[in-house]
Amino acid sequence: MWRLALVAFPTFLLLVIPGIMYTRMFMDLARKIRDEYEKAGTIAEHAVSSIRTVYSFMVERRTMSVFSNALEDSIKLGLLPSLTKGIVVWSNSVTFAIWAFMAWYGSRIVMYHEGKGGTVFAVGTAIVTGGLALGSGLSNIKYFSEASSAGERFMKVIRRTPRIDSDSIEGTVIENLSGDVPAGKTVALVGGSGSGKSTVIALMERFYNPLGGEIFLDGVDIRSVKLKWLRSHILLVSQEPALFATSIKENLLFGKEEATMEEVVAAATASNAHNFISQLPEGYDTHVILSCNSIFPSI
């Protein structure tokens, strides 16, 4: 019944357009919600990673207040998708008007063009049901948009080009390195909490570059020195250990990948850890985890 299909086809768009509009609106909302959650997540991450500082300065309530305030905008944005979907569902009430129109026009086809009532009903059902199904299906594209929005963050990290490339083989090597501190001497860097002691060490190891000024090693700007060579001549022992979820031996090998077992034992002995490690169930092959800054063998 091409006459009825042709006349009723524009009404098909009335059922599809709301779904398309909802999908486009939800994609924008998904990005905004993601950005708002990132703000709150950053606050929580900093608070947890610096929990000792938060606790020592007794700013727990202030931190929770800042975190709660950061969630306010995400709550408002979270209500909009439900409101938008409600409007879309309400717009589907136009189907009653579409059925009324097709019943009227279909009756004229039956009276003047020898149409059949069953065919009119079949065409109307196909158009209305198809339009509603397509409109509802398009609204589910939001899940693809959410995945796309989350994927953007991963791709941003994957495609990111670090300013300081630890794998770079470029740079100069200082043949006769003497350093700025005489051999055998001890230099203490003293200052209050937050004065920049750790920052100085991080700058020397080129974890990041200074925004102003320069750092020289034997008169050579360290930014022009081969990074792997520079770090191979600096030993850093942090006040809080950081272990990887692997064996004790492999953790020690991060300092020197080609080290022999004798060198691994010598390093552990020099740090007064050999006796402790030897008492573990599998010795240097014991799998460890870091919990409360303590080493526990895996179960």
Description of the structure:
There is one protein chain. With 299 residues, this protein is mainly alpha-helical. It folds into three domains: 2-159, ABC transporter transmembrane region fold, CATH 1.20.1560.10; 180-236, no CATH class; 248-297, no CATH class. It has helices at 2-49, 51-56, 60-91, 94-112, 117-139, 141-159, 197-204, 227-232, 248-253, 261-270, 274-278; strands at 216-217, 220-221, 288-291, 294-297. Strands 1-2 form a two-stranded antiparallel sheet. α1 (2-49) runs antiparallel to α3 (60-91) and α1 (2-49) runs parallel beside α5 (117-139). The longest helix has 48 residues, at 2-49. It is elongated. Residues 291-299 have low confidence and may be disordered.
Q: How are the secondary structure elements laid out?
A:
Elements: H1 2-49, H2 51-56, H3 60-91, H4 94-112, H5 117-139, H6 141-159, H7 197-204, E1 216-217, E2 220-221, H8 227-232, H9 248-253, H10 261-270, H11 274-278, E3 288-291, E4 294-297
Antiparallel strand pairs: 1-2, 3-4
Tags for this model:
elongated; 299 residues; single chain; two-stranded antiparallel ribbon; 3 domains; ABC transporter transmembrane region fold; mainly alpha
